Amino acid sequence: MICACHQVGEATIRNAIQAGDTTVESLGARLACGTRCGSCLPELKRIVEEERSHERTDTSLELA
Ligand code: FES
Asked: Best substitution site from 1, 39, 47 to test ligand 1's pocket, by max atoms within 8 Å of Cβ?
């Protein structure tokens, strides 16, 4: 569970990022995570960055 206020878990967040919500703001718009107390924002940012760097790695592997 990443966002306790809105009961949003890590898997849900990663799925949303892969579906195109690649910023904390758009995750908040879709899932409401990070829009109440804000204490999960650092975690949300970390997951967004992690998923984005996976994307970059995948792309470079495809090109190679
Ligand atoms: S824990 Fe996510 S807004 Fe409070």
From this structure: 39
At 36 the three-state DSSP class reads coil
Is the C-beta atom of 36 inside 6 A of ligand 1? yes
Percentage of the chain beyond pLDDT 90 is 81
- pLDDT grade, residue 32 (50/70/90)? very high
| pTM of the shown model | 0.84
Give residue limits of the domains in the chain: 10-63
Query: Is the CB–ligand 1 distance for residue 47 below 6 Å?
Result: no
